[in-house]
Amino acid sequence: MKLFLAPMEGVVDWVMRDTLTQIGGIDQCVTEFLRVTDKLHPESVFYKNCPELKTGSRTRAGTPVFVQLLGGQAEPLALNAQRAVKLGALGVDLNFGCPAKTVNRHDGGAAILKSCDRVHTIVDTVRKAVPAHIPVTAKIRLGFDDPTRCIEIAEAVQAANATWLTIHCRTKTDGYKPPAYWEWIPRIKETVGMKIIANGEIWNVADFHRCVEVTQCEDYMVGRGVLSNPFIFKQIKQSLQQETVEEMNWLRAKPLLPKFFEASTMYINDYFAVSRTKQWLKALSLKNAEAKEVFDQIKILKKPTEFRENLEKICQ
After folding, report:
1. Are residues 272 and 210 in the same domain?
2. Do residues 1 and 219 lie in contact, with contact meaning Cβ atoms separated by under 8 Å?
3. Catalytically annotated residues
4. ∠ CA(255), CA(259), CA(264), 5° rounding?
5. Is 209 contained in some domain?
6. Among 43, 44, 258, 276, fewest CB within 10 Å belongs to which?
7. pTM above threshold 0.90
8. Residue 31 belongs to some domain of the structure
9. Residue 161 sits in which domain range?
10. How confident is the model over 8-50, as pLDDT tens digits?
11. 289 CB contacts (<8 Å, ≥6 apart)?
12. Are 108 and 99 a contacting pair, CB within 8 Å?
C-alpha cells in the first residue's frame, strides 16, 4: 500500500514537500499544478515548479515526485509533458480536479469534467507523447456538479490508458465541504479495472481505516489532513504495521516551523516565508489548541525580522 501527498495548490511547494517527506510515511508526491495554455514553458519554469528535477525527481528524503499539468488543450499539454520527462520527471499527472473558479473559467481543472470526450482526448494525447515506461496519471473529482458522471469519466481515463486514477470523492460544486463520498469508488471499480487512489476527508488514522473499509483501494492520498497533523502519514504506516501510533502534539510539531520559515526564505524570500508559515500555523491550529495560541500571537506580525524572532522564541 502506498500513501500519496496531495498536490495542493498554493500550499505543497518544494519546501512543504521537503519538510513533510523528511518526517516519513509518504511514498509519492505530486507538484502543485503547472498551468498550460497554448505555450511550451521554458525549462526554468519547470525547475521553479519542481526543483526536485535536479535531484532525480525525488525529494531529499528520496520520495518520488511527479509533475502535475493543468489545462484544456491536449497538444500543448503533451508538449509540456514531453519537456517535463526530458528534464527528468518520473511521471506526469493531469489535473481535472481543481475547483477554483478562476481556473475553471479559464478552461482548466474540474471544468474539463463536463466532457468525458475532452478528458479522454487529453489523457490519450499526453499518454502517446511520452515514453511508455513513464507513468501518465489523472486526478479527478466525482464530476462537475453531478456525481453520477464519475463512472463515465473514469471509463474515459481508463480507455486513454492512464497508469492510474486518483479520485477526490466530491464534485466540483461540493468544493471541500464534508463529507467525501467514498462509496462511489466501489461503484466505479465495478466497471473500471485500473488502479484507483482514494482521496478526500482523511484527517486521522481512524478516517483512513474507514476509507479503506469503504473503498478497498490499494493506495490513498492525503491532503489537508497532513497540514493539521504533519505526522499523519507516519501514524498511518505505524497502524498498518501494528506498531504503537505516536500521537501528534505541539511539542513534536513546533520545531518544524523555524526550519520551514528559513527554507521558504531561501526558496523565494522572507515575506513569502512569513505568509506560508502563517498559513501552515493556521492549519495546525485547527486541530491543536497550543498551535492556535501561537498563531493568534504572531498572525499580526508582518515584518520578517520580527516574525522570525518571535517564531524562534516560541518554538525553541
Report:
1. no
2. yes
3. 98
4. 140
5. yes
6. 44
7. yes
8. yes
9. 3-240
10. 999 999 999 999 999 999 999 999 999 999 999 999 999 999 9
11. none
12. no
